[in-house]
Amino acid sequence: QAAEETAQAAEETAKAAEETAQAAEETAKAAEETAQAAEETAKAAEETAKAAEGTAKAAEETAKAAEETAKAAEETAKAAEEAAKAAEETAAAQADKVAEKAAAAIAAMNAARKQQSASESAPKPKQKKSNSGLPAPVIGPRDLTAVREARKQKAENAGDDFSKNFLVCASPHIHNGETTRTIMGDVLFALLPAAIASVFFFGWRSLITILVCVVSCVATEAVCRVIMKRRQTISDLSAAVTGVILAFCLPPEINPLFCVIGSIVAIAVVKQMFGGIGMNFANPAATARIVLMLSFPVAMTTYSVPFSWWDKANYDAVSTATPLAQLADPASGTCTNLELLLGFHGGCLGETCAIALLVGGLFLLLRGIITWEIPVSFLGTVAVISLIAGQDPIYQLLSGGVMLGAIFMATDYATSPVNSRGKLIYGVGCGLLTMLIRLFGSMTEGVSFAILLMNIITPHIDNLTLNRAFGEERDAA
């Protein structure tokens, strides 16, 4: 039994030894793995050390760059300080120069004051005032000088430095001496030959018609300006020009009441209701003639024979047809081109004598009041279409209101285009419409209708012919 127990114990010891050997084997394997891990850790540590060394080198280079940047900033600050010192010295020098100029200006001012005080005893001209009580508007270099002198005197009296008071006004600053009054005066002078011819051919009734139209137009404008509480403009003579042109569009012996009605339409309705001179979109005289023609057709188409005013007994009974009416009805007779040129035919009192109108137009061209584009394109278009239609172009040009319309009505500043291309288109349109009405319309004359229709499209002509600024691109289609 003891041997058996000993054998069992040996067997157990052998098993324990075997287990111990297995454990030792596993421990050896673990030690081997630990050694491998330690080797890998050492390699990683070596790489980390290398990376740390590179980082240290980069940090050292960055520190060197920062040091260089600091040195550059220090040098820049020194340069800025030197520039500031130089600028301060320059400003001081300029201030000294300005002080010297100011001292010279003060000395000049004192000398001017002494000179002014020496002339205080001399009489001073009174400044003209407008109807509103305010100083008259600046219209020329002499007026600008007067205003400057007045402001200078006012500043001196107040003890101020007059050199600090400047004249501020709207353009234009360079004047050629032309004003609305002088331009309208030239137009009236250009209308004078036709007015004299009308009195010569049709007598005192034509003079009465002219005077009634002028007085009615001026009075209407004066009343309108009072009602609208605006500055009076009758002194610019524009209303008088409208009155004369309106009278030229009427028969010599028309009822004066119709002249007054036409004047009210031309001034109050066409001109003043749209703001006054330069603001009307249509020609006042042409519009008034159309209104009178449509309202009083019999009175507006009754024309007297030239020189019939010498026969006072038969004056009211003598009437004749116009050259255009004679052209439509050859049985009533025709006029020669010489008679049309000199005015020996019936018609409106200002339209008959073509040579008088041509003399007035030539005067306006020489004075620069009108340009050649509108009259030439108007008359040229009438002549060309007359040739195409088989009519005598001279007869068409000298009869009716073509001359009056082309020279005095179509060239109105407010109702015609502003540039040369637009004026040519405008004149061609007026001539074209005039001939279309004459050839195909129920009326023998169409100048006033043509001018009015072209007045309406004048803004569109200006837009189409507007000059582009240099370098400006065209609008995309």
Question: How would you sum up this structure, described in words?
Answer:
With 477 residues, this protein is an all-alpha fold. Mean pLDDT is 82; it is low at 124-142. The chain has 16 helices and no strands. The protein has helices at 2-118, 141-157, 180-202, 204-227, 238-248, 256-271, 284-295, 297-300, 323-328, 337-342, 354-367, 373-388, 393-398, 402-409, 420-440, 447-464. The N and C termini lie far apart (128 Å). Helix content is 67%, strand content 0%.
Identify the quaternary structure here. single chain
State the end-to-end CA separation: 128 Å
Question: What does the main sheet amount to?
Answer: none
User: Which residues form runs of ≥5 with pLDDT under 50?
Assistant: 124-142
Order of helices and strands: HHHHHHHHHHHHHHHH
Mean of residue pLDDT values: 82
Helix content: 55-70%
Write the layout of secondary structure elements.
Elements: H1 2-118, H2 141-157, H3 180-202, H4 204-227, H5 238-248, H6 256-271, H7 284-295, H8 297-300, H9 323-328, H10 337-342, H11 354-367, H12 373-388, H13 393-398, H14 402-409, H15 420-440, H16 447-464
Helix pairs in contact: 3-4, 3-5, 3-11, 4-5, 4-6, 5-6, 5-7, 6-7, 7-16, 11-14, 12-14, 12-15, 15-16
